[in-house]
Amino acid sequence: MPVSTSPRRTLTALGIAVGSFASLQSLLVPVLPVMQADLGTDAAGITWALTTWLIVAAVATPLLGRAGDLLGRRRMFLLALAAVGLGSLVSALAPNLGVLLVGRALQGLGGAMFPLGFGIVRDVLPPGRVAGGIGVLSALLAVGGGIGSVLAGPLAGLVGWRGLFLVPLLGVAVGGILVLVGVPERGERAQGRVSLSSAVLLSGWLVALLLPLSTGAAWGWGSPRTIGLFVLAALLLAVWVLVELRVREPLVDMRMMRLPGVWNTNLAAVLFGASMFGTWAYFARFVQEPVSTGYGLGASVGTAGLIMLPMLAVMAAAGFFTGRLSRVLSQRGQLATGAVLIAASTVAIALVHGSALVLTAEAALFGLGLGLGYAAMTNIVVAAVPPTQTGVASGMNANLRTIGSAIGTALMTAIVTGSAAPGGEPTEAGYRLGFLVLAAFAALAGAVALSAGGSRAQRRAPAPEPRPVEAAA
Fold first, then answer.
1. How many CA atoms lie within 13 A of 66 on its CB side?
2. Residue 385 in 3-state DSSP?
C-alpha cells in the first residue's frame, strides 16, 4: 500500500510511539511496593520487573536494529511496537510475578524502536531535516523516561498499578496506526544476514554485565556470583570482538566502531549515561528526604514531580531546537556543551540545595544539558556511518549509554546507602559525594566529546569498505 510522505506526519507517528515506550523506563518505580504486595512476592522478586525489561531491551536494541538494516526499518519498528503492546496487555492482566515478567520481557523488545526510529528519520526526511528529526525523537525519548516517574504516582491513584500499563498501550496503538498509514518503507538495505554466533555472544556479555550491575547491591558486590558474572562478561566480550573481526558477515563491524565520531561518542555515551541516570535516579529521593535530616525538603511525591517538571520542559525544548542550533554550533559542540551543563548543574545540586526554588532551577539547567547532549550524541553517530549501518550503530550507542546508566546508578547507590548508619537515612555528605562523582563523569564526557570530530568531519569520514559478500551482492 503506497504511503504518502510528510516529515511532520513521520515525526508525529514515531514520536508518539517512542515517547509511549520510553515512559516504561520509570513508570513502575513509584508503585513497586504496591505491586509487590498484590503479587505476593518479596522486594528482590519485584525488582526483576525492572531488571528483566532492562536486559531484554539491551539485547534487542542492537539485534533488531541490525535486522532493520537488513529487512526494513519500518517493518521491524512495527514488529517492536506490536511486542510492546502485547507485553503491556500481558503485564496489566498478570495474575502472578512470572506472568508479569513475561509481559515485561515482551515490552523490552521495544528498545529496538530507538535505533529503528533514527534510521527511519534518516531514510524518510530530507537531508536538511535529519538532525532536527533525530533531535525531536531524542527529546521525546528522554522526556518519556522522565515523565513516567512524575505521573506514575497520580495515575496509579486513579487507575491502579495495572492501569499504568494501559497508558503506554494506548500510545503504542495510536503510534502504530500512524506509522502504518503515514510512514513509508524507504532507504538502502544492507546485504547479508545476522550472524548467530555474534548474536549469542553479544547477548551473553550484555546479560552477564547488566545483571550484576542491576542486582549487585542486593547480592553483594564482593559475592562470588557478582564477581563471577563480571569475569564472564569480560571473557564473552573479548571472544565476541574476536569473532566479529573474523566472520564474513559481522553483526557489528568493528571497523565501523573505530570510525572518527563513533568510538569517541560511544565512550562519551557511557560517561554521559552514568551521570545522567545516576542523578536522575536519586534526585527525587534527595528532595523527599525528611526535614529532620538537616538537608532534606520532606517533599511529597507530587511536589518532587513539580520540581522536576521544568527539567522535562527544558529538555524537550532543547531537543526540538537542536536542528536549528546546529547551524551555528556543531553536534560535537552541542554534546560538549550539554555535558558541561550537566556537570555544572550536578555540582550545584550537591553544594546548594536549601530550597525547592533553587533545586528547580538546577534541575532545569540539568534538563537543558540533557536535551542538547542526548540529541547530539545520536546525530554524531548517525552522520558518521553509512545508511546501511544506521540501526546497528545507533543501537550500540544506546546500549553503551544503558551500560553507563547502570554503572552510574549502581555507584550512586553504593555511595549514598553506604553513608547511612544502620537503619538510618543517608547523610548529606553521602549525597554530596555521589553527585560530585557523577558531575566528574559528565565533565569527562564533555572532554571526550571535544575529540569526537565535528559534523562536517563526520560527513567526510570514509565509510568502511564492503566485505566480500556485500561487494558481490
1. 20
2. coil
Residue 48 has pLDDT above 90, yes or no: no
3-state secondary structure string across 103-158: HHHHHHHHHHHHHHHHHHHHHHCCHHHHHHHHHHHHHHHHHHHHHHHHHHHHHHHH
CA–CA separation, 83 vs 228, rounded Å?
Answer: 32
The cell 510492546 sits on which residue? 84
Count of C-beta atoms within a 10 Å radius of residue 258 = 10
- What is d(CA 390, CA 372) in angstroms, rounded to the nearest whole number? 21
For residue 335, the one-letter residue type is L
Let me know the angle formed at the C-alpha of 105 by 99 and 109, rounded to the nearest 5 degrees: 150
Quote the pTM value: 0.79
Neighbours of 412 (CB within 10 A): 26
Residue 458: its pLDDT value, please? 40
- Return the pLDDT at 177: 92
Quick check: 93 and 38 in contact, CB under 8 A?
no
**Integer distance in angstroms from the first to the last C-alpha of the chain?**
27
Average pLDDT of the chain to the nearest whole number: 83
pLDDT reported for residue 439: 95
More confident residue, 155 or 292: 292
pLDDT mean over 375-391: 82
SS3 358: helix
